[in-house]
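Progress note, project year one: complex with N-(aminocarbonyl)-beta-alanine.
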Amino acid sequence: MTTTLITGGTVVSATGRAAADVLVDGETIRAVLEPGAALLGTDVAASVDRVIDATGKYVIPGGIDAHTHMQLPFGGTEASDTFETGTRAAAWGGTTSIIDFAVQTYGQRIEDGLAAWHEKAAGNCAIDYGFHQIVGDVNEASLATLRRLPDEGITSFKMFMAYPGVFYSDDAQILKAMQVSRDTGMLTMMHAENGPAIDVLATQLVEQGRTDPFYHGVARAWEMEEEATHRAIMLAKLTAAPLYIVHVSAKQAVEQLAWARDKGQNVYGETCPQYLYLSLEDQLGAKGEQWGSFEGAKWVCSTPLRSREEGHQDSMWQALRTNDLQMVSTDHCPFCMKDQKELGLGDFRKIPNGIGSIEHRMDLMYQGVVTGEITLERWVELTSTTPARMFGLYGTKGVIQPGADADIVVYDPNGHTSIGLEKTHHMNMDYSAWEGYEIDGHVDTVLSRGKVIVDGDQYLGAKGDGRFLKRGLSQYLI
Ligand code: URP
Ligand code: ZN
Ligand code: ZN
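Model obtained:
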């Protein structure tokens, strides 16, 4: 077993920071020591196999991205990152665990959808991975199966109030699934947008000749997110189910969450980097030479990017500070422009929805520290510690403490990261939604269960290094 000492750095947790050395023994953290301390009378640095010098750098628990879609069949195509390419890109960006969504499609058994997801991931991941379950067909059999999933380490499921004819569930189906959530303690995750109403608006826009990507954001108005968020909250209240709203982008949806939380309801929410930095006007507005007004397809995702003039982005940052939103995931769902986003040329409804960010989440959120939006500790909390607690991984993940998995990132605040074109990222995409973003900071070294998988500009990981994470119930609920 290899022993490693990470020395000279500042260890940052969700609650504080301190100069400390971290001793790693095999796959786990053995001790967090005063700088230069001896252990059982031995000079630690002299006795370990490897020393990582973290002088002037932050030592943080590895990022946990709790919302990814590798190889998701969607919008007439399939998300372009495999578990192999997507988890490798994650590692490059300082993320050491993901929770992906296993899919049950309409007419399929949950068991079969889940087995297919295990097959896609097993032996292919560079980092540890867990699953949520997408419930795409609520019936007696699927509800019975859902009840048994915690035994398999799957303790959360996602439902969709959007995408009629694809993943959509109506209120009656949602109510029934939430009753399972109440009985089992599983977290109900909700895509909260009023899909049937959105589809009417989208069709009307296309009939008026408004076919550009920009109209994706127009059809998916914030009222549709606010309404669905409220409805989900009320259904959860009625059934006493714990609820987690995914990819929140509208400030009015945050107000709904804050309202319910102030009443003591077990309701939580995440946002994503795209809803903090990008906007309807800047990204989906008609611009660009190469694709004409179709360039906006790069940023078509759901919930959609929102208007900056209306202040949604500022409201997301504020909610992250006040804990009205508890964490930041990517909703990584990458598609290439060529042959994929292009499916929607002439009709925005056919553009596969999704943005790829798995590689950039830690950097983009660190930029929030640099600009004063969040503290250093909150950065760690939003990207690692709360995801671990929310989804039943805390203790082994999300923290640097003896006994935890040695998932550790050495982050250099004096480094620099230019996020750029296809050639400079590792995600399987022919463009970057983040092109031109400059980050004051850099992921230096990444350890996944004690193994150095990223060392400067060298990738040392391998497919199959990552293990399936059997998760417990949420450790965050009140
Ligand atoms: O645009 C998105 N978010 N695509 C992925 C599917 C989903 O709704 O999360
Ligand atoms: Zn969704
Ligand atoms: Zn998603």
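The mean pLDDT is 96.
Residues 191, 246-247 surround zinc ion (ligand 2) (CB under 6 Å).
No further modelling is planned for this target in the current period.
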